[in-house]
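Consider the following assembly input.
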Amino acid sequence: MQELDLEIDLEKSLGPWLGKTIKITDYYLHEAFQQHGLDISKEQMIVLGKLNKNDGLNQNEIADLIWRDKSSLARLLAKMERKGYIIKRQHEQDRRVNLVYLTESGREIFRKTRPIIQKAINILEMDLSKSEIKRMIEILKRIQDNFTKELKTL
Amino acid sequence: MQELDLEIDLEKSLGPWLGKTIKITDYYLHEAFQQHGLDISKEQMIVLGKLNKNDGLNQNEIADLIWRDKSSLARLLAKMERKGYIIKRQHEQDRRVNLVYLTESGREIFRKTRPIIQKAINILEMDLSKSEIKRMIEILKRIQDNFTKELKTL
DNA sequence: TAACTATGGTTGCATATGCAACTAATGGAT
DNA sequence: ATCCATTAGTTGCATATGCAACCATAGTTA
């Protein structure tokens, strides 16, 4: 009995379900990109998306936008540059800064990912009404705020 | 205009919010383990949890339970064995199989993670009623099912 | 001007992860 | 008994990630 009381039933908590949902979503995108012959990872696609919306960002700005460490981003960009999707240009005034630009090839591959992304969103929200989606996002935001607050007290 | 029409507003979709929520949850756990001097990662903690509930599983069984590739699990176990949290014993009848057992030290550190996990669950579900949690889990399950179905048609 | 500080980016070291190819062992079929 | 297929686990190669230490440049302060 006491042993049982100590058990935390993780499966009844939200955590693992969130994790598994992300996992299968990622897997779906990975498979779909592959099937369409797109040589790109989800993470790289996200970077292309930010640049597509706002070309010429510097590395730290991109890192912030996608919630990654700047070192992680630097390595992501290195791979993308090798594949010819982006180019880095040194800022003329401040030589510490690299401005990152989409190449034609990068813009092209991002364009090709769009219908796949749209389909993934459709699947994700297939059974949900607009208001349910809004509600879910609100809840997720609130969870994030709660963790942020608790982190400060650690 | 046409350019705008082509834009997908990812931020209004569920995907990135799920991702960010997981990210901050993971970060919280990581920080909390560190602050308590627990030399363990979230992934390792999950493995310990499965073994704590069901000692003597083999590697493939554990991999299935935590939705990881067997190779990923093998490496996780190697680290955990080095730290003395688990031991692997060859199955007596079937020498291909490794049965994995918690050590005392493994059981001990898992015990110490429990209040931290419980707190993380509390934070995660802080603003949610029981029925909302159930509803969220149902939705997440449905999303997973939808992706699973769509994967087959790829 | 020299010294100190802050910033942008890179690199070493570490974690976790998956796929594909591989080894070893098992079990069945001929 | 031998060959074949299956299964459990390992390993090579690749991705992505974060922290901390570092380098180079810029900006500020004495």
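Residues 130-153 of chain B form the longest helix (24 residues). Ask yourself how this observation constrains the way the partners meet.
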